[in-house]
């Protein structure tokens, strides 16, 4: 398969996985009013129940970087797909039986499977972006938004047809699981564990290798395969580090005068030595000590509060705040994800032209104004306009943060895992807090508290500035 064809297949397959992620999650989250009624709980109690899913996500995401490094993206995605199928079937059972306990178990497993899915698809999206050589990661998140919008329409259609949420869950979950099984293979063709054992075509010059290591406009670097760099694929990303080390050394050997031959031989020797066991776990843990990674995580936390709170509470806030039907609340969330989708497709050009920092700051202002309009508007049409601004503001913060965490390809699995942990923490804390506030002051006013997160994002926007090339780990650290 040619390189361009492989990149194209990987790109579209990943877009499909992102879209399916949005469909399966949003289709039932937009029917939270029905779930609340089926379980016989209040908004505050539902918020406490939903926290179980966030606990599952947090439980999984802190170790997902090491899991991906050890077992690889493809195996992790297969396991996540199977677990998600079981989880949502339990959620369906719980709503059909009116059992909070069964629902909570399903929600916990859904959180675990979501974390196991989220890290590898974002990691592979960043790797494909590096292959393309320009910012396309927002396109993948736009695909998620398209899926979320489609999921909102699915939820609205099932609601309008008065079909029980449990029936909807079974139909959608099984269909999504089948579609995922068909797309995981081509989506992970550039995953570290699949490229680790690859060899380049004979005749590739050191100059070509040096060019491959150059910084791309997207803020990443392509990952070449090196002749003779056969490494242990079982160690996933750690194996890919050895391949890249050989590439850098071979390039240095071409410009190193009389020492060039010995340098290149040293590169081959290094590449042929498999990385030590446990290197992936140590790399994953060390990322928690990096100030820039932690601050990017806080940016993603703010983004997740903005986007996730809309997914959890926008439909309920519309239903309770303006006394409209559930289908109207679902359409309001569909408007939110529609705005995100349009801006995510348009945003790649904005990022390339103005840079991550400027775009992130503009996004924060848009989300802040939109939230204020939605929470304070006396009329529904003005609140709806606020939803559009809110969606536009929420569109690019998440992919920008993920891209910033992926600047160094060798450390990206660990760093993406760390920053997505902050997203899981947002999911852990927001549902119960917003649920309690919604019972006391109403859903619209409760969502105004997310404005504080937007201020945090504005303050930390400078942290997403691309790493300079000399700050990237072109040679892996020895375990």
From TrEMBL:
InterPro entries: MFS, MFS_dom, MFS_trans_sf, MFS_Transporter. Its main location: membrane. Residues 196-225, 249-284 are annotated as: Disordered. It is found in: Cell membrane. The chain crosses the membrane at residues 12-32, 44-68, 75-94, 100-121, 142-163, 169-191, 294-315, 327-346, 358-377, 383-404, 416-438, 444-462. Residues 1-469 form the Major facilitator superfamily (MFS) profile domain. One of its GO terms (molecular function) is transmembrane transporter activity. Keywords: Membrane, Transmembrane, Transmembrane helix. One of its GO terms (cellular component) is plasma membrane. The keyword Coiled coil does not apply. SUPFAM superfamilies: MFS general substrate transporter. It is a multi-pass membrane protein. The keyword Transferase does not apply. This is Inner membrane protein YbjJ. It comes from Oerskovia enterophila.
């Amino acid at each position: 398969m040619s390189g361009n064809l492989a990149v194209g297949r990987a790109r579209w397959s990943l877009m499909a996985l992102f879209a399916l992620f949005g469909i399966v999650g949003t289709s039932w989250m937009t029917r939270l009013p029905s779930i609340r009624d089926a379980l016989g709980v209040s908004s505050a109690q539902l918020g406490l129940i939903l926290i179980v899913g966030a606990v599952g996500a947090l439980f999984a995401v802190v170790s997902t970087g090491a899991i991906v490094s050890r077992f690889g993206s493809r195996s992790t995605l297969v396991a996540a797909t199977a677990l998600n199928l079981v989880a949502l079937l339990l959620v369906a059972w719980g709503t059909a039986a009116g059992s909070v306990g069964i629902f909570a178990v399903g929600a916990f497993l859904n959180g675990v499977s979501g974390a196991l899915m989220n890290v590898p698809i974002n990691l592979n999206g960043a790797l494909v972006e590096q292959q393309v050589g320009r910012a396309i990661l927002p396109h993948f998140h736009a695909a998620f938004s398209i899926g979320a919008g489609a999921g909102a329409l699915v939820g609205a259609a099932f609601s309008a047809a008065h079909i029980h949420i449990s029936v909807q869950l079974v139909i959608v979950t099984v269909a999504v699981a089948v579609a995922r099984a068909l797309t995981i293979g081509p989506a992970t063709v550039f995953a570290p564990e699949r490229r680790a054992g690859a060899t380049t075509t004979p005749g590739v010059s050191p100059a070509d290798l040096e060019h491959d290591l150059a910084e791309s406009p997207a803020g990443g670097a392509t990952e070449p395969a090196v002749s003779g760099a056969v490494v242990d694929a079982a160690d996933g990303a750690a194996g890919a580090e050895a391949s890249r080390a050989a590439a850098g050394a071979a390039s240095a050997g071409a410009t190193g005068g009389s020492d060039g031959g010995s340098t290149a031989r040293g590169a081959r020797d290094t590449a042929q030595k498999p990385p030590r066991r446990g290197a992936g776990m140590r790399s994953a843990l060390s990322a928690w000590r990096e100030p820039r990674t932690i601050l990017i995580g806080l940016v993603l936390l703010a983004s997740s509060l903005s986007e996730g709170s809309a997914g959890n509470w926008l439909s309920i806030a519309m239903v309770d705040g303006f006394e409209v039907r559930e289908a109207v609340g679902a359409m309001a969330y569909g408007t939110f994800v529609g705005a995100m989708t349009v801006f995510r497709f348009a945003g790649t050009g904005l990022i390339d032209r103005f840079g991550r920092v400027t775009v992130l700051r503009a996004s924060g202002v848009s989300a802040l104004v939109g939230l204020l309009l939605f929470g304070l508007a006396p009329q529904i049409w003005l609140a709806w306009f606020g939803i559009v601004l809110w969606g536009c503001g929420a569109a690019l913060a998440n992919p920008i943060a993920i891209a910033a965490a992926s600047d160094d390809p060798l450390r990206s699995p660990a760093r993406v895992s760390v920053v997505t942990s902050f997203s899981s923490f947002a999911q852990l804390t927001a549902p119960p807090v917003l649920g309690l506030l919604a019972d006391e002051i109403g859903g619209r006013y409760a969502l105004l508290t997310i404005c504080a997160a937007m201020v945090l994002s504005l303050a930390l926007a400078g942290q997403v500035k691309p790493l300079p090339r000399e700050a990237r780990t072109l040679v892996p650290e020895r375990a």
